[in-house]
Design goal:
Elements lengths: L3 E11 L5 H15 L3 E5 L5 H11 L8 H25 L3 E5 L2 H11 L4 H12 L1 E10 L2 H8 L13 H16 L7 E5 L4 H20 L1
Parallel strand pairs: 1-3, 1-4, 2-3, 4-5
Bound molecules: ligand Z5A.
């Protein structure tokens, strides 16, 4: 299977406390204003079965998953999500916005857990087959993001990781966004700015993509 880029497929990525939920609301407003139908979804999850797999990945109540298990759970959920939710929506003519997608596996399980990027690329090609035309990467220093998340209740399994793990995840995202093969679809946004400034940059980039597709 070769990787197909979908022009109406948009993803949001970033580390802890980057502000993805906040930006998602701004993107939703931009689509509504333009009268464009869009599906909003998330990973891990986005279908009933994939949401159960999310529970397996993030719950702290069962034995810790080894890195390979975590990666394969993310891809099992993604296979289900792509075929039952994302592709049907794209094929119906809608736009799709996913809060995280395959880049998260490269960042968390690749850079963060140290799994081989080539193995992840093979899974991406064989199991996923699609990638977004636009990825908004909300980049924030680890300490700033973690500070924002404090006081939000019990941490899930990944949120409970140490700072050096999150530093590797952040670097993994930044390296991917800068790589020759991927840089064109990435918009890296300094998410330590105010909520309004971050949202404005995200919406401007989305509007440029909408204009490109409608041209
Ligand atoms: N994961 C993985 O390991 N492998 C994979 O393949 C995939 C995922 C797909 C769940 O993801 C976990 O799954 C995630 C990676 C892993 N690891 N963790 N942890 P998730 O996306 O569901 O969970 P999350 O990363 O913890 O996201 P979140 O809790 O939804 O955070 P957020 O959306 O980025 O942040 P927010 O809720 O919009 O904002 C956080 C707080 O900061 C909130 O109080 C805001 O008011 C505040 N905020 C936001 N923006 C600003 C600005 N600009 N200034 C000041 N304050 C702000």
């Amino acid at each position: 299977m070769t990787l197909r880029t979908h022009a109406r497929f948009v993803t949001l990525e970033g580390g802890e406390g980057a502000g993805k939920s906040t930006v998602l609301a701004a993107l939703r407003g931009a689509f509504e204003q333009a009268g464009i139908q869009a599906l909003y979804t998330r990973e891990p999850g986005g279908t009933p079965l994939a949401e159960q797999i999310r529970g397996l990945m993030l719950d702290t109540h069962h034995e810790p998953a080894v890195a390979e298990t975590e990666l394969l759970l993310a891809f099992a959920a993604r296979a289900q999500h792509v075929r039952t939710t994302i592709l049907p929506a794209l094929e119906s003519g809608a736009w799709v916005v996913s809060d995280r997608f395959t880049d998260a596996s490269y960042a968390y399980q690749g850079a963060g857990r140290g799994l081989d990027a080539q193995f992840i690329a093979d899974l991406e090609r064989r199991v996923v087959g699609i990638r977004p035309a636009l990825t908004l990467l909300l980049d924030v220093p680890v300490e700033v993001g973690l500070q924002r998340m404090r006081g939000r209740g019990a941490a899930d399994r990944i949120e409970g990781e140490r700072n050096d793990f999150f530093e590797r995840v952040r670097q993994g995202y930044r390296d991917r966004a800068a790589s020759a093969a991927e840089s064109e679809r990435f918009e890296v946004i300094d998410a330590s700015q105010t909520v309004d400034a971050v949202a404005a940059q995200a919406v401007a980039r989305l509007q440029a993509q909408i204009a490109r597709v409608l041209r």
